Amino acid sequence: MRDILETLLTREGYDVRLASSGEEGLELARALPFDAAFVDIMMPGLNGIATLDELRRIDEELAVIIITAFASVESAISAMKSGAFDYITKPFKNEEVLVVVRNALERRWLINENRNLRQNIQERYHKFANIIGKSPKMRQVFDLIIQAAPSRSTILIQGESGTGKELVARAIHTHSSRSERSFVTVNSGNLPPDLLESTLFGHVKGAFTGAVYPKKGMFDLADRGSIFFDEIGNVPLETQAKLLRVIQERDFMRLGGMETIKVDVRIIAATNVDLRQMMEEGHFREDLFYRLHVISIQLPPLRDRKDDIPILTQHFLRKYSDENKKGDLELTPEALDLLTEYDWPGNVRELENVIERAVVLTSGQRIGIELIPDHVRKTPNFAMPQFVVPPEGISFKDVITDFEKRLIESTLEAAGGVQKKAAELLHIKPTTLNEMIKRYDIRPRRKRHTVGDAVTPEPVESGAVAVPDLPRDS
Ligand SMILES: Nc1ncnc2c1ncn2[C@@H]1O[C@H](COP(=O)(O)OP(=O)(O)OP(=O)(O)O)[C@@H](O)[C@H]1O
Ligand SMILES: [Mg+2]
After folding, report:
1. Is the pTM of this model over 0.70?
2. How far is the CA of 352 from the centre of ligand 2 (A)?
Protein backbone atom coordinates (compact mmCIF):
# COMPACT_ATOMS: atom_id res chain seq x y z
CA MET A 1 0.00 0.00 0.00
CA ARG A 2 2.87 2.36 0.76
CA ASP A 3 4.23 1.75 -2.72
CA ILE A 4 0.87 2.32 -4.33
CA LEU A 5 0.49 5.62 -2.51
CA GLU A 6 4.00 6.64 -3.47
CA THR A 7 3.43 5.93 -7.15
CA LEU A 8 0.09 7.71 -7.15
CA LEU A 9 1.27 10.83 -5.35
CA THR A 10 4.58 11.08 -7.19
CA ARG A 11 2.74 10.89 -10.50
CA GLU A 12 0.71 13.91 -9.35
CA GLY A 13 3.89 15.85 -8.71
CA TYR A 14 4.12 15.48 -4.93
CA ASP A 15 7.39 14.87 -3.17
CA VAL A 16 6.92 11.67 -1.17
CA ARG A 17 8.87 9.99 1.65
CA LEU A 18 8.03 6.54 2.98
CA ALA A 19 8.28 5.24 6.54
CA SER A 20 7.57 1.67 7.51
CA SER A 21 6.54 2.41 11.10
CA GLY A 22 5.25 5.20 13.33
CA GLU A 23 8.68 5.68 14.85
CA GLU A 24 10.31 6.02 11.45
CA GLY A 25 7.64 8.52 10.39
CA LEU A 26 8.30 10.67 13.43
CA GLU A 27 11.97 10.73 12.67
CA LEU A 28 11.26 11.97 9.14
CA ALA A 29 8.86 14.61 10.47
CA ARG A 30 11.53 15.91 12.83
CA ALA A 31 14.06 16.13 10.04
CA LEU A 32 12.02 17.60 7.17
CA PRO A 33 9.05 19.94 6.75
CA PHE A 34 5.91 18.17 5.44
CA ASP A 35 2.48 19.32 4.37
CA ALA A 36 0.60 16.09 4.95
CA ALA A 37 1.07 12.61 6.39
CA PHE A 38 -0.82 9.39 5.73
CA VAL A 39 -0.89 7.24 8.84
CA ASP A 40 -2.43 3.78 9.12
CA ILE A 41 -4.33 3.31 12.34
CA MET A 42 -3.25 -0.32 12.90
CA MET A 43 0.49 -0.53 13.02
CA PRO A 44 2.87 -2.69 14.98
CA GLY A 45 4.79 -0.65 17.58
CA LEU A 46 3.53 2.89 17.82
CA ASN A 47 -0.10 2.79 16.65
CA GLY A 48 -1.78 5.35 14.41
CA ILE A 49 -3.33 7.49 17.15
CA ALA A 50 -0.10 7.70 19.15
CA THR A 51 1.80 8.58 15.97
CA LEU A 52 -0.79 11.23 15.18
CA ASP A 53 -0.41 12.76 18.65
CA GLU A 54 3.34 12.92 18.36
CA LEU A 55 3.24 14.27 14.79
CA ARG A 56 0.98 17.09 15.98
CA ARG A 57 3.43 17.89 18.72
CA ILE A 58 6.19 18.19 16.16
CA ASP A 59 4.11 20.34 13.77
CA GLU A 60 0.62 21.24 14.87
CA GLU A 61 -0.37 22.34 11.39
CA LEU A 62 0.65 19.12 9.67
CA ALA A 63 -2.42 17.59 8.02
CA VAL A 64 -2.54 14.00 9.25
CA ILE A 65 -4.76 11.69 7.23
CA ILE A 66 -5.68 8.48 8.97
CA ILE A 67 -6.17 5.24 7.09
CA THR A 68 -8.61 2.81 8.68
CA ALA A 69 -9.61 -0.63 7.55
CA PHE A 70 -13.21 -0.21 8.59
CA ALA A 71 -15.48 2.78 8.92
CA SER A 72 -15.76 2.31 12.65
CA VAL A 73 -17.24 5.34 14.30
CA GLU A 74 -15.00 5.06 17.34
CA SER A 75 -11.59 4.95 15.76
CA ALA A 76 -12.46 7.60 13.20
CA ILE A 77 -13.93 9.86 15.88
CA SER A 78 -11.05 9.48 18.25
CA ALA A 79 -8.63 10.22 15.42
CA MET A 80 -10.58 13.32 14.39
CA LYS A 81 -10.80 14.40 18.02
CA SER A 82 -7.05 14.05 18.40
CA GLY A 83 -6.70 16.44 15.51
CA ALA A 84 -6.54 14.27 12.39
CA PHE A 85 -7.29 16.31 9.29
CA ASP A 86 -9.37 13.61 7.66
CA TYR A 87 -9.50 9.87 7.16
CA ILE A 88 -9.89 7.40 4.34
CA THR A 89 -11.09 3.83 4.60
CA LYS A 90 -9.50 0.81 2.98
CA PRO A 91 -9.92 -0.10 0.21
CA PHE A 92 -9.72 3.39 -1.24
CA LYS A 93 -9.93 4.80 -4.74
CA ASN A 94 -7.07 6.88 -6.16
CA GLU A 95 -9.32 9.85 -6.71
CA GLU A 96 -10.31 9.79 -3.04
CA VAL A 97 -6.69 10.01 -1.94
CA LEU A 98 -6.00 12.87 -4.31
CA VAL A 99 -9.02 14.84 -3.11
CA VAL A 100 -7.96 14.53 0.52
CA VAL A 101 -4.38 15.59 -0.25
CA ARG A 102 -5.57 18.54 -2.27
CA ASN A 103 -7.83 19.61 0.63
CA ALA A 104 -4.96 19.25 3.06
CA LEU A 105 -2.73 21.54 1.03
CA GLU A 106 -5.48 24.05 0.58
CA ARG A 107 -5.95 24.02 4.31
CA ARG A 108 -2.31 24.77 4.89
CA TRP A 109 -2.69 27.79 2.71
CA LEU A 110 -5.91 28.83 4.44
CA ILE A 111 -4.38 28.52 7.87
CA ASN A 112 -1.82 31.13 6.89
CA GLU A 113 -4.50 33.33 5.38
CA ASN A 114 -6.63 32.92 8.46
CA ARG A 115 -3.80 33.74 10.78
CA ASN A 116 -3.52 37.14 9.13
CA LEU A 117 -7.26 37.49 9.25
CA ARG A 118 -7.39 36.71 12.93
CA GLN A 119 -4.82 39.36 13.68
CA ASN A 120 -6.88 41.81 11.70
CA ILE A 121 -10.12 41.16 13.52
CA GLN A 122 -8.53 41.28 16.88
CA GLU A 123 -6.66 44.45 16.23
CA ARG A 124 -8.99 46.44 14.13
CA TYR A 125 -12.51 45.15 13.92
CA HIS A 126 -15.25 43.86 16.13
CA LYS A 127 -16.54 41.98 13.21
CA PHE A 128 -15.86 38.75 11.43
CA ALA A 129 -17.67 37.77 8.22
CA ASN A 130 -20.74 39.90 9.05
CA ILE A 131 -20.83 38.57 12.58
CA ILE A 132 -20.62 41.43 15.03
CA GLY A 133 -19.16 40.87 18.48
CA LYS A 134 -16.32 41.90 20.70
CA SER A 135 -17.23 40.04 23.88
CA PRO A 136 -14.74 37.35 24.92
CA LYS A 137 -17.40 34.74 24.19
CA MET A 138 -17.83 35.86 20.60
CA ARG A 139 -14.09 36.10 20.10
CA GLN A 140 -13.87 32.49 21.09
CA VAL A 141 -16.52 31.71 18.50
CA PHE A 142 -14.52 33.56 15.84
CA ASP A 143 -11.42 31.61 16.78
CA LEU A 144 -13.26 28.33 16.55
CA ILE A 145 -14.64 29.21 13.12
CA ILE A 146 -11.17 30.08 11.90
CA GLN A 147 -9.71 26.86 13.25
CA ALA A 148 -12.48 24.57 12.12
CA ALA A 149 -13.28 26.08 8.73
CA PRO A 150 -10.43 24.56 6.70
CA SER A 151 -11.06 20.93 7.67
CA ARG A 152 -13.76 18.72 6.27
CA SER A 153 -15.08 17.74 9.69
CA THR A 154 -18.73 17.92 10.46
CA ILE A 155 -19.65 20.87 12.65
CA LEU A 156 -22.54 21.25 15.06
CA ILE A 157 -23.67 24.77 15.94
CA GLN A 158 -25.79 25.06 19.06
CA GLY A 159 -27.60 28.10 20.37
CA GLU A 160 -30.94 29.65 21.14
CA SER A 161 -33.09 31.03 18.40
CA GLY A 162 -31.75 34.26 16.91
CA THR A 163 -28.18 33.88 18.16
CA GLY A 164 -26.71 33.78 14.66
CA LYS A 165 -26.33 30.06 13.90
CA GLU A 166 -26.93 30.52 10.22
CA LEU A 167 -24.46 33.39 10.03
CA VAL A 168 -21.82 31.18 11.63
CA ALA A 169 -22.57 28.31 9.24
CA ARG A 170 -22.06 30.64 6.28
CA ALA A 171 -18.85 32.02 7.77
CA ILE A 172 -17.46 28.49 8.07
CA HIS A 173 -18.23 27.81 4.44
CA THR A 174 -16.77 31.13 3.30
CA HIS A 175 -13.51 30.44 5.13
CA SER A 176 -13.10 26.92 3.84
CA SER A 177 -11.52 25.68 0.63
CA ARG A 178 -15.08 24.99 -0.53
CA SER A 179 -16.08 28.65 -0.64
CA GLU A 180 -16.18 28.70 -4.44
CA ARG A 181 -18.76 25.91 -4.39
CA SER A 182 -22.33 25.94 -3.17
CA PHE A 183 -23.60 26.43 0.33
CA VAL A 184 -26.91 24.59 0.40
CA THR A 185 -29.38 25.08 3.25
CA VAL A 186 -31.80 22.35 4.26
CA ASN A 187 -34.70 23.40 6.45
CA SER A 188 -35.18 20.01 8.00
CA GLY A 189 -38.39 20.87 9.79
CA ASN A 190 -40.94 21.80 7.22
CA LEU A 191 -41.10 18.72 4.98
CA PRO A 192 -42.71 15.31 5.52
CA PRO A 193 -40.04 12.52 5.73
CA ASP A 194 -40.29 11.07 2.20
CA LEU A 195 -40.35 14.46 0.60
CA LEU A 196 -37.34 15.46 2.70
CA GLU A 197 -35.45 12.39 1.46
CA SER A 198 -36.25 12.97 -2.16
CA THR A 199 -35.23 16.61 -1.72
CA LEU A 200 -31.93 15.56 -0.16
CA PHE A 201 -31.00 12.56 -2.27
CA GLY A 202 -33.11 12.99 -5.39
CA HIS A 203 -35.13 10.15 -6.84
CA VAL A 204 -35.15 7.85 -9.84
CA LYS A 205 -37.87 7.79 -12.43
CA GLY A 206 -40.88 5.93 -11.07
CA ALA A 207 -39.69 6.00 -7.45
CA PHE A 208 -43.22 6.95 -6.43
CA THR A 209 -46.42 7.96 -8.16
CA GLY A 210 -45.77 11.25 -9.85
CA ALA A 211 -42.01 10.68 -10.18
CA VAL A 212 -42.19 10.93 -13.96
CA TYR A 213 -38.67 12.28 -14.32
CA PRO A 214 -35.56 11.43 -12.35
CA LYS A 215 -34.45 14.25 -10.09
CA LYS A 216 -31.19 15.21 -8.43
CA GLY A 217 -31.12 16.22 -4.79
CA MET A 218 -29.49 18.78 -2.55
CA PHE A 219 -26.49 16.54 -1.96
CA ASP A 220 -25.79 16.67 -5.70
CA LEU A 221 -26.02 20.44 -5.56
CA ALA A 222 -23.70 20.61 -2.58
CA ASP A 223 -21.02 18.35 -4.07
CA ARG A 224 -17.57 19.79 -3.22
CA GLY A 225 -19.37 22.48 -1.22
CA SER A 226 -21.16 22.56 2.13
CA ILE A 227 -24.62 21.52 3.17
CA PHE A 228 -26.26 23.20 6.14
CA PHE A 229 -28.91 21.34 8.12
CA ASP A 230 -30.89 23.92 9.99
CA GLU A 231 -32.69 22.37 12.97
CA ILE A 232 -31.08 18.96 12.61
CA GLY A 233 -33.19 17.78 15.56
CA ASN A 234 -36.20 17.76 13.26
CA VAL A 235 -34.72 15.18 10.90
CA PRO A 236 -36.72 11.95 11.31
CA LEU A 237 -34.91 8.84 12.53
CA GLU A 238 -34.93 6.97 9.17
CA THR A 239 -33.40 9.96 7.43
CA GLN A 240 -30.83 10.25 10.22
CA ALA A 241 -29.56 6.79 9.25
CA LYS A 242 -29.05 7.94 5.68
CA LEU A 243 -27.24 11.07 6.81
CA LEU A 244 -24.92 8.98 8.91
CA ARG A 245 -24.13 6.99 5.84
CA VAL A 246 -23.26 10.08 3.84
CA ILE A 247 -20.95 11.22 6.63
CA GLN A 248 -19.26 7.84 7.02
CA GLU A 249 -19.24 6.39 3.54
CA ARG A 250 -19.48 9.60 1.59
CA ASP A 251 -22.10 8.18 -0.66
CA PHE A 252 -25.85 7.89 -0.91
CA MET A 253 -28.62 6.31 -2.94
CA ARG A 254 -31.46 8.05 -4.68
CA LEU A 255 -34.99 7.35 -3.58
CA GLY A 256 -35.99 4.18 -5.40
CA GLY A 257 -32.45 3.79 -6.77
CA MET A 258 -29.91 0.96 -6.44
CA GLU A 259 -26.75 2.72 -7.41
CA THR A 260 -24.57 4.45 -4.81
CA ILE A 261 -23.47 7.94 -5.68
CA LYS A 262 -20.20 9.36 -4.35
CA VAL A 263 -20.31 12.81 -2.90
CA ASP A 264 -17.81 15.14 -1.26
CA VAL A 265 -19.66 17.49 1.07
CA ARG A 266 -19.02 19.19 4.33
CA ILE A 267 -21.95 18.90 6.68
CA ILE A 268 -22.78 21.76 9.02
CA ALA A 269 -25.71 21.27 11.37
CA ALA A 270 -27.49 23.63 13.72
CA THR A 271 -29.91 23.10 16.55
CA ASN A 272 -31.63 25.07 19.28
CA VAL A 273 -32.80 22.00 21.14
CA ASP A 274 -30.77 19.82 23.46
CA LEU A 275 -29.71 17.01 21.11
CA ARG A 276 -28.15 15.04 23.94
CA GLN A 277 -31.49 14.89 25.67
CA MET A 278 -33.22 13.92 22.42
CA MET A 279 -30.65 11.16 22.06
CA GLU A 280 -31.28 9.94 25.59
CA GLU A 281 -35.00 9.86 24.86
CA GLY A 282 -34.39 7.83 21.72
CA HIS A 283 -35.39 10.52 19.23
CA PHE A 284 -31.91 11.09 17.92
CA ARG A 285 -29.42 8.45 16.82
CA GLU A 286 -26.49 8.06 19.13
CA ASP A 287 -23.97 7.38 16.38
CA LEU A 288 -25.08 10.43 14.42
CA PHE A 289 -24.98 12.55 17.58
CA TYR A 290 -21.32 11.68 18.16
CA ARG A 291 -20.51 12.11 14.51
CA LEU A 292 -21.92 15.62 14.51
CA HIS A 293 -20.19 16.46 17.74
CA VAL A 294 -16.67 16.14 16.40
CA ILE A 295 -16.51 19.92 16.46
CA SER A 296 -19.21 21.89 18.20
CA ILE A 297 -19.69 25.62 18.40
CA GLN A 298 -21.83 26.99 21.19
CA LEU A 299 -23.38 30.39 20.49
CA PRO A 300 -24.00 32.33 23.70
CA PRO A 301 -27.39 34.02 24.19
CA LEU A 302 -27.30 37.80 23.93
CA ARG A 303 -28.10 38.26 27.63
CA ASP A 304 -24.78 36.56 28.45
CA ARG A 305 -22.76 38.99 26.35
CA LYS A 306 -24.36 42.33 26.95
CA ASP A 307 -21.14 44.14 26.06
CA ASP A 308 -22.04 43.33 22.46
CA ILE A 309 -25.36 45.18 22.58
CA PRO A 310 -23.96 48.68 21.82
CA ILE A 311 -21.99 47.61 18.75
CA LEU A 312 -24.81 45.42 17.48
CA THR A 313 -27.20 48.35 17.92
CA GLN A 314 -24.80 50.58 16.02
CA HIS A 315 -24.51 48.02 13.24
CA PHE A 316 -28.28 47.66 12.82
CA LEU A 317 -28.85 51.42 13.05
CA ARG A 318 -26.50 51.92 10.15
CA LYS A 319 -27.95 49.01 8.20
CA TYR A 320 -31.56 50.15 8.47
CA SER A 321 -30.85 53.83 8.15
CA ASP A 322 -29.07 53.10 4.84
CA GLU A 323 -31.94 50.92 3.73
CA ASN A 324 -34.48 53.59 4.60
CA LYS A 325 -32.32 56.55 3.54
CA LYS A 326 -32.54 58.18 6.93
CA GLY A 327 -29.03 59.61 7.17
CA ASP A 328 -27.00 59.55 10.36
CA LEU A 329 -29.12 58.24 13.20
CA GLU A 330 -28.27 57.87 16.84
CA LEU A 331 -29.84 56.49 19.96
CA THR A 332 -30.26 58.60 23.10
CA PRO A 333 -28.23 57.28 26.05
CA GLU A 334 -31.51 56.46 27.87
CA ALA A 335 -32.69 54.36 24.95
CA LEU A 336 -29.40 52.51 24.79
CA ASP A 337 -29.64 51.87 28.54
CA LEU A 338 -33.01 50.25 28.06
CA LEU A 339 -31.64 48.00 25.35
CA THR A 340 -28.72 46.99 27.53
CA GLU A 341 -30.92 46.17 30.51
CA TYR A 342 -33.37 44.01 28.63
CA ASP A 343 -32.78 40.27 28.49
CA TRP A 344 -33.51 39.63 24.79
CA PRO A 345 -35.19 36.22 24.81
CA GLY A 346 -35.24 36.42 20.99
CA ASN A 347 -31.53 37.30 20.99
CA VAL A 348 -29.91 39.24 18.15
CA ARG A 349 -32.89 38.76 15.86
CA GLU A 350 -35.15 40.47 18.40
CA LEU A 351 -32.70 43.34 18.84
CA GLU A 352 -32.47 43.73 15.07
CA ASN A 353 -36.28 43.91 14.79
CA VAL A 354 -36.52 46.51 17.54
CA ILE A 355 -33.94 48.72 15.82
CA GLU A 356 -35.50 48.29 12.41
CA ARG A 357 -38.87 49.37 13.78
CA ALA A 358 -37.40 52.40 15.54
CA VAL A 359 -35.54 53.49 12.39
CA VAL A 360 -38.65 53.22 10.27
CA LEU A 361 -40.78 55.11 12.80
CA THR A 362 -38.42 57.93 13.72
CA SER A 363 -38.95 61.36 12.24
CA GLY A 364 -35.82 62.96 13.71
CA GLN A 365 -32.19 61.91 13.85
CA ARG A 366 -32.26 60.90 17.49
CA ILE A 367 -34.08 57.79 18.60
CA GLY A 368 -35.43 58.06 22.14
CA ILE A 369 -37.12 55.67 24.51
CA GLU A 370 -40.56 56.44 23.06
CA LEU A 371 -39.59 54.42 19.98
CA ILE A 372 -38.62 51.35 21.98
CA PRO A 373 -41.51 48.85 22.29
CA ASP A 374 -43.31 48.53 25.62
CA HIS A 375 -42.14 45.06 26.48
CA VAL A 376 -38.49 46.10 26.18
CA ARG A 377 -39.11 49.28 28.15
CA LYS A 378 -40.71 47.70 31.17
CA THR A 379 -38.53 45.39 33.15
CA PRO A 380 -41.10 42.69 33.69
CA ASN A 381 -42.24 42.36 37.29
CA PHE A 382 -42.50 38.67 36.95
CA ALA A 383 -41.36 36.19 39.53
CA MET A 384 -41.65 32.45 39.48
CA PRO A 385 -43.72 31.11 42.36
CA GLN A 386 -41.93 29.12 45.04
CA PHE A 387 -42.97 25.52 44.86
CA VAL A 388 -43.45 23.47 47.98
CA VAL A 389 -43.84 19.82 47.12
CA PRO A 390 -46.10 17.97 49.60
CA PRO A 391 -44.76 14.82 51.25
CA GLU A 392 -47.12 12.60 49.26
CA GLY A 393 -45.74 14.06 46.00
CA ILE A 394 -47.65 15.70 43.22
CA SER A 395 -48.33 15.16 39.53
CA PHE A 396 -45.70 17.07 37.57
CA LYS A 397 -47.99 17.22 34.58
CA ASP A 398 -50.90 18.71 36.53
CA VAL A 399 -48.76 21.43 38.05
CA ILE A 400 -47.25 22.40 34.72
CA THR A 401 -50.66 22.37 33.04
CA ASP A 402 -52.09 24.53 35.79
CA PHE A 403 -49.19 26.93 35.54
CA GLU A 404 -49.38 27.21 31.76
CA LYS A 405 -53.09 27.79 31.93
CA ARG A 406 -52.82 30.60 34.44
CA LEU A 407 -49.94 32.22 32.62
CA ILE A 408 -51.97 32.25 29.43
CA GLU A 409 -55.02 33.65 31.20
CA SER A 410 -53.04 36.47 32.75
CA THR A 411 -51.31 37.28 29.50
CA LEU A 412 -54.59 37.35 27.62
CA GLU A 413 -55.87 39.81 30.18
CA ALA A 414 -52.79 41.97 29.83
CA ALA A 415 -53.26 41.91 26.07
CA GLY A 416 -56.88 43.00 26.41
CA GLY A 417 -58.01 39.65 25.07
CA VAL A 418 -56.11 40.02 21.78
CA GLN A 419 -54.50 36.65 21.08
CA LYS A 420 -51.93 37.97 18.61
CA LYS A 421 -50.68 40.46 21.20
CA ALA A 422 -50.68 37.83 23.93
CA ALA A 423 -48.62 35.50 21.73
CA GLU A 424 -46.15 38.32 21.18
CA LEU A 425 -45.86 38.91 24.93
CA LEU A 426 -45.10 35.25 25.48
CA HIS A 427 -42.72 35.05 22.52
CA ILE A 428 -44.65 32.20 20.96
CA LYS A 429 -46.42 31.84 17.66
CA PRO A 430 -50.10 32.89 17.59
CA THR A 431 -51.02 29.43 16.29
CA THR A 432 -49.27 27.78 19.26
CA LEU A 433 -51.12 30.04 21.68
CA ASN A 434 -54.38 29.37 19.95
CA GLU A 435 -53.83 25.61 20.21
CA MET A 436 -53.14 25.93 23.94
CA ILE A 437 -56.20 28.11 24.49
CA LYS A 438 -58.32 25.44 22.85
CA ARG A 439 -56.59 22.59 24.66
CA TYR A 440 -57.07 24.20 28.07
CA ASP A 441 -60.50 25.48 27.18
CA ILE A 442 -59.56 28.98 28.29
CA ARG A 443 -62.36 31.52 28.15
CA PRO A 444 -61.98 35.27 28.39
CA ARG A 445 -62.38 36.59 31.95
CA ARG A 446 -64.36 39.67 32.81
CA LYS A 447 -62.49 41.09 35.76
CA ARG A 448 -59.29 42.95 34.81
CA HIS A 449 -56.51 43.59 37.22
CA THR A 450 -53.23 44.04 35.46
CA VAL A 451 -50.32 46.34 35.88
CA GLY A 452 -49.56 48.02 32.57
CA ASP A 453 -48.53 45.52 29.95
CA ALA A 454 -46.54 43.33 32.25
CA VAL A 455 -47.44 39.75 32.80
CA THR A 456 -48.35 39.12 36.39
CA PRO A 457 -49.27 35.56 37.28
CA GLU A 458 -51.78 35.07 40.01
CA PRO A 459 -51.03 32.85 42.95
CA VAL A 460 -51.62 29.26 42.02
CA GLU A 461 -54.36 28.05 44.28
CA SER A 462 -53.54 24.37 44.33
CA GLY A 463 -52.86 23.34 47.90
CA ALA A 464 -49.51 21.93 46.96
CA VAL A 465 -48.01 25.03 45.50
CA ALA A 466 -47.32 27.96 47.76
CA VAL A 467 -46.75 31.31 46.10
CA PRO A 468 -45.19 34.24 47.92
CA ASP A 469 -46.24 37.83 47.28
CA LEU A 470 -45.18 38.79 43.82
CA PRO A 471 -43.02 41.87 43.55
CA ARG A 472 -44.84 44.83 42.01
CA ASP A 473 -43.55 47.68 39.91
CA SER A 474 -42.31 50.41 42.17
N1 LIG B 1 -23.46 38.48 15.89
C2 LIG B 1 -24.32 38.97 14.97
N3 LIG B 1 -23.96 40.04 14.25
C4 LIG B 1 -24.81 40.56 13.33
N5 LIG B 1 -26.02 40.07 13.05
C6 LIG B 1 -26.42 38.99 13.73
C7 LIG B 1 -25.59 38.37 14.72
N8 LIG B 1 -26.23 37.31 15.23
C9 LIG B 1 -27.41 37.26 14.59
N10 LIG B 1 -27.54 38.25 13.69
C11 LIG B 1 -28.71 38.53 12.84
O12 LIG B 1 -29.84 38.07 13.55
C13 LIG B 1 -30.73 37.38 12.70
C14 LIG B 1 -30.86 35.96 13.18
O15 LIG B 1 -29.66 35.25 12.95
P16 LIG B 1 -29.67 33.73 12.45
O17 LIG B 1 -30.75 33.51 11.45
O18 LIG B 1 -28.29 33.37 12.05
O19 LIG B 1 -30.05 33.06 13.83
P20 LIG B 1 -30.35 31.52 14.17
O21 LIG B 1 -29.52 31.21 15.36
O22 LIG B 1 -30.17 30.72 12.92
O23 LIG B 1 -31.87 31.58 14.62
P24 LIG B 1 -33.01 30.43 14.49
O25 LIG B 1 -32.65 29.34 15.45
O26 LIG B 1 -34.24 31.16 14.92
O27 LIG B 1 -33.02 30.01 13.07
C28 LIG B 1 -30.17 37.50 11.31
O29 LIG B 1 -30.76 38.59 10.66
C30 LIG B 1 -28.70 37.75 11.54
O31 LIG B 1 -28.16 38.49 10.49
MG1 LIG C 1 -31.56 29.74 11.73
Report:
1. no
2. 14
